[in-house]
Every structure is written in C-alpha cells, then in structure tokens.
Design goal:
The complex is a heterodimer. Chain A is 73% helix and 0% strand. Chain A is mainly α. Chain A has one domain. Chain A starts with a helix and ends in a 6-residue tail after the last helix. By secondary structure, chain B is α/β, with parallel strands linked by helices. Chain B has 2 domains: 242 residues, Rossmann fold; 60 residues, Alpha-Beta Plaits, CATH 3.30.70. Chain B contains 13 helices and 13 strands. Chain B has a 6-stranded mixed β-sheet with strand order 5-6-7-3-8-9, sandwiched between helices. In chain B, strands 11-12-10-13 form a 4-stranded antiparallel β-sheet. In chain B, α4 runs parallel beside α6 and α5 runs antiparallel to α6. Classes of the chains: A mainly alpha, B alpha/beta. Chains A and B meet through α2 and α7 of A and α3, β5 and α4 of B.
C-alpha cells in the first residue's frame, strides 16, 4: 500500500504500457512458431459441433424450450467462437514453470510474470480470429437476424462480455496454476474445474435447458460468465438490460479473481523452491 | 554491497522409498523430511569484489545465490543487496542485479535470441540506442553475431550460454550472480568469458558472485572465496591463503629431452605425476629455488614450470577427501 501511495503503482502501469507492445510482438512471433500446434488445437474444439449435431436432431421434431434447430446451430457456433477466442493455456504453462523452476528467469525481470503471460496469450487472439472467420460467416448466414450487427449498445456489451470472459478465464487459470506451489496436482484440480465448467457454463447444454435449480445456481458461479453469458448475449437470448446486469456480475467475478490471484501469487512466491540449477 | 546475517534455508522434502507398495502407502501417509540447505551463513561483500562460492554438490551455494537474487525466501536470517531486501523484488533492485543460471535459460526457446534481447530491452525499459550499443558490444565480444538470428532450440549448449550472458547483461547490472556461467563452453570460450567477466567487473565496478563447475573459473576470477559445506560456511577469505594453508607446496613440472637417470627425481622431491618424458614434483615452497636449480643441473630438462597445486586438489583435501571433480565440481 505504501508503495502504491509513493506512486509506484502508476509507474508500474506506465512501465507495463511501454513494455506491452514488445511483449505482444514476441507473443505473436511465438504463436507463428507454433502455428501447426494452433491448428491442431482448433481441431480439438469439436465438442460444440458434436452437441450441435445432437441437439439439432432432437429439435427436428419440434423446438426444445426456446431452441429450434436454427437456435441450436447459432448457439453452438457462438459457443465455438467464444471458446476459441477466449481459450488460454496459462494453467499448463504456470504449473510447468513453478514445478521445474523455469519461473525463476521471469521473476528476475522488472514486470509481473502474469503481465508477460497475458501478452503471450493475448497475442494468439488475432490469429485465432482469422482462423475462425469462416465460422463467423456461417453464423451470419444461419442467424444473421439474431446478431447485434445493427445494435451498437448490444454489440458493445458482446465485445465487453467476450473480453471479460477472456480476463476471467485467464485469472482462474492463474489461480489454479499458482496452486502448483502448494500441491503437485494443480492440473488435476483444473480437470475438475473443466468438468464443472462443461456443465455449468452452458458449454455442453444451454443452461436454460437444464433443471431450473441448476440454471439458477449457475448464475451465482463464475463458469457461466466465461462461456454461456457471452454466447447468450451474442445470439440475442438475453435482453440488453439483463446482459448489462450480467456484465456487472462478470466484472465482480473478475475483481474477486484478481484479488485472489494477487494474494495467492504473493503467498506462493514464498513457497517457490526455484528447483533445478 | 551485500550483507548476509545468520542466513538459514530449510526445505521440506517428501521422502518415499521406491516400489509400488511405498507409492500406495505415500498416498495415505506422506513422510516429509527437513533438509537444511543453509545454516547460519553470514558474510559481507564490498562493491566491486569478485567472490567465488565453493563447495560440494548440494552444499548450498546455488541456494545462497537464489536467496541473494530474491528468488528464494530465507527460513531465517536477513540479507540486503545494495539498499534492498531482495525478496521485496523492487524494480530498482531488479535493474541492479542479474542472475545467470547455467542450468536454466531465459531465452525464448522457439525464437531467435535477438527476440529475447528485444523483449528484455522493453522489460527493463532501456533507451534503444543504449541497449543497441550494449548488445553490439556483448555480441561482438562473445562472437555470436551469426547466432542471434537462429532459433534458440537450434543452438548448441555453449552457443546458448553465450546468448544467455548477453540477455542477462543487457541492462548493465551492478551485481552479477553467476551460477555455472561457463557450463558447456569449450576451453577457449571459457577463457574468453572469464576475461569478459573480469573486464566487466573492472570497467563497471560491478560486484561478482560466482559458482562454477570449473575450478579454473574461480581461480582465475575470484581473489576471495566463500566455502560452504553441508549448508555451513567453512571458509571465507583469500584464495591463496587457503591454498597455502591446505597445500603449502609448489608443483614443479618438468619436460625431459631424454630419460632421466633412475633415482634422480626422487632426490629432488615427492613425484606426484610421471610419464616417460614428463614429471611433476611436489616441493615445499621454501625449497623451490633450490629444487629448480638442482633439476636444471642434474636432469635433461627441455622445459620447466612452477605452479600452485590445482584448486581441485586443495578443495578435495579441505572438504575431507570428497571426490575432486565430483566433490567440488559445482563449486
């Protein structure tokens, strides 16, 4: 706190802003070095397509709740888009760096390692956006009338929701990855998280098609604000008022996750053993 | 510049005997053991000093460097580097120091080293002209111009190490923590790096703390050594004084133009190494002049030199007969 009062916080922000373009450039170069891996990763993102095939078959005989065949196609294409754009691999990176000590060089640089990681992850977004652009076209032709193309306010909320989802997932991954300083099985914890996320974020099944108490509970948990909320807003399942409210909830989850991330990071550094070498 | 007081570091280590049964048992009941890596270690290092950390494997040398650079928190005791507590990791502190770890790299694996240099320039907020000039100077000195555009993963260990040095020194740190900086380098490059470190120290007044697998690094660079054994500081002082105390003798190495007469060598001193046309004698320092004169008079000498005993031997004896390279190898 004293350091913040001395203006160190402002200096840090200015420093990060100056360094960030270089970090993004390096992240982009790194991304191109791993271009084949990126394509393979995209091919593994097929679960929404499988679910789309399943649910459109179910909806052939009649709509399920608010979902007809077109709604299911729009929902799962939107899910695929948001999943690909907001995807992150921070938890694997962080777990590995903490366990084998390669976090050490990052700690010797005068910028928080999570800033550097964020740039590496963010640098992947433009390339992913290019790769998924055909999906956007399919989505447009399938559900163009549902997209917020002519509603600037809703479009802004969608963009903010996707950005928020990216930040929230990044922070959650930072928290779970940092746990590697305490437990050897941080990745197993993340597997548990992924299992819960698949159900409670709307990734597998739209939340409103789940039992009402599950859908209600999901609104009080962070999972929905990583996937379901941006997708529902994108394809017009949420009203602008409701989306604004959820944007606020998402912001609260981000703030809470940020506090936990920073506190956990500080504590974990005291346990970091900088193994090897 | 550096002040350590009663520094202790204890690791909690999970111990498990091998075997499936033990693996299953460890799921239910874990056994932990406390390992004291450093115990009551105190020292002061003045600005501009070059100090070598010596000791057997696992003695605590690298732990000490990691605490001094702020990577590890000491279990007890205190340390300051400049006016900073390293563990606070203040920006000014990180600008002041560097840690080169021969076993760890900061270079981006899939990108050329030039990308790491550019990234470090941004992270350390260095003026472009200044950073470019430093980079050029270091790259020229270490002769790595053609390498910095190749992906790091395609470089040899030695080439990577040289690039690591450039990345670590780009911000012109005033305190250098060097953990095995010459690992993987060939003999001539080791000498070049040693010369480079000495010149950096002399021209910038930087403080240098070094651990090295190669005794030559320590002997050539560090007038002062700190010897750590089993976490305890067992010697802190002048390297030559330690050498004289442990081995108060000189080594006379002679090359012969023809085979010397039998028995002649034994009369001059204790023969510690012998091949057909070469021999090395261990002679008390006070008797060296007399022994050399006698050797030149009696033996068919083609070349003769007088040296201190190798540091490996001195350390082996000092640390109670632990293997020379194995025992003092990561010193």
């Amino acid at each position: 706190m004293n350091r913040l009062l001395r203006g160190e916080g402002l200096r840090t922000v200015r420093h990060v802003l100056r360094a960030y373009p270089a970090l993004l450039r390096v992240g982009l170069a790194d991304m191109f070095a791993y271009r084949a891996e990126l394509v393979v990763w995209l091919l593994t993102m097929n679960m929404p397509l499988v679910m789309m095939a399943l649910w459109t078959a179910v909806a052939k005989s009649g709509p399920v709740g608010r979902f007809g065949q077109r709604e299911f196609v729009a929902y799962y294409l939107g899910m695929l888009l948001v999943r690909i754009i907001t995807g992150s691999w921070l938890v694997w990176e962080l777990t590995m760096e903490i366990r084998n000590g390669t976090l050490a060089p990052r700690l010797l640089r005068p910028i928080h390692p999570l800033w550097a990681h964020s740039a590496m992850q963010l640098a992947a977004v433009p390339l992913r956006a290019i790769l998924v652009s055909p999906l956007v076209l399919v989505l447009y032709f399938t559900a163009g009338e549902r997209l917020p193309l002519h509603e600037p306010a809703r479009l802004a909320i969608v963009v903010a929701a996707i950005a928020g989802a990216w930040i929230l997932l990044f922070l959650i991954m930072a928290i779970i990855g940092t746990l590697a300083a305490y437990v050897e099985s941080a990745l197993s914890i993340f597997d548990v998280w992924l299992g819960a996320q698949a159900v409670l974020s709307g990734y597998l099944v739209p939340l409103e098609l789940l039992p009402p108490w599950v859908a209600r509970t999901a609104r009080y948990l962070p999972f929905r604000y990583i996937l379901g909320f941006p997708v529902e807003t994108l394809i017009g399942l949420e009203s602008t008022t409701s989306a604004l409210h959820d944007l606020g909830v998402q912001a609260l989850f981000i703030a809470g996750s940020l506090v936990v991330t920073l506190a956990l990071w500080r504590a974990a550094l005291k346990r970091f053993a900088a193994f090897g070498g | 510049m550096i002040r350590a007081r009663k520094l202790c570091k204890t690791y909690r280590v999970h111990r498990r005997p091998p075997g499936l049964l033990e693996a299953l048992r460890s799921v239910v009941r874990r056994r932990y053991e406390e390992v004291r890596a450093l115990c009551d270690v105190s020292f002061d290092i003045a600005p501009g000093e070059r100090v070598g950390f010596l000791g057997p494997n696992g003695a605590g040398k690298t732990t000490a460097l990691k605490i001094l650079s702020g990577l590890l928190y000491p279990t007890s005791g205190s340390v300051t580097v400049g006016d900073f507590v390293p563990q606070d990791r203040r920006t000014e502190f990180l600008h002041m120091i560097t840690l080169v770890m021969g076993q760890k790299q900061q270079l981006l694996w899939d990108l050329p080293p030039a990308e790491t240099f550019a990234m470090n320039r941004a992270l350390f907020d260095l003026p472009r002209d200044e950073a470019d000039a430093t980079q050029k100077e270091l790259v020229d000195l270490l002769e790595i111009g053609p390498l910095i555009g190749k992906p790091t993963r395609q470089l040899s260990l030695g080439e990577r190490m040289k690039c690591e040095l450039v990345a670590a020194l780009l911000h012109r740190p005033r305190v250098l923590f060097l953990d095995e900086p010459t690992i993987g380098l060939d003999v001539s490059m080791q000498a070049r790096v040693r010369d480079f470190i000495r010149r950096y120290n002399e021209s910038t007044g930087a403080t240098v703390l070094l651990t090295s697998h190669y005794m030559e690094d320590v002997a050539a660079l560090c007038p002062r050594v700190i010897v750590i054994d089993k976490g305890h500081l067992v010697y802190d002082g002048d390297l030559r004084t330690l050498a004289r105390r442990i081995r108060p003798e000189k080594r006379i190495t002679m090359h012969f133009s023809s085979l010397p007469a039998p028995g002649e060598l034994d009369r001059l001193g204790n023969c510690v190494a012998r091949s057909e046309l070469q021999a090395t004698l261990a002679v008390p320092a006070a008797q060296v002049t007399e022994a050399v004169r006698a050797a030149l008079g009696r033996l068919p000498i083609s070349d003769i030199s007088v040296e201190d005993p190798p540091l490996e031997e001195i350390m082996q004896e000092f640390l109670g007969g632990q293997p020379a390279n194995g025992g003092v190898r990561s010193a």
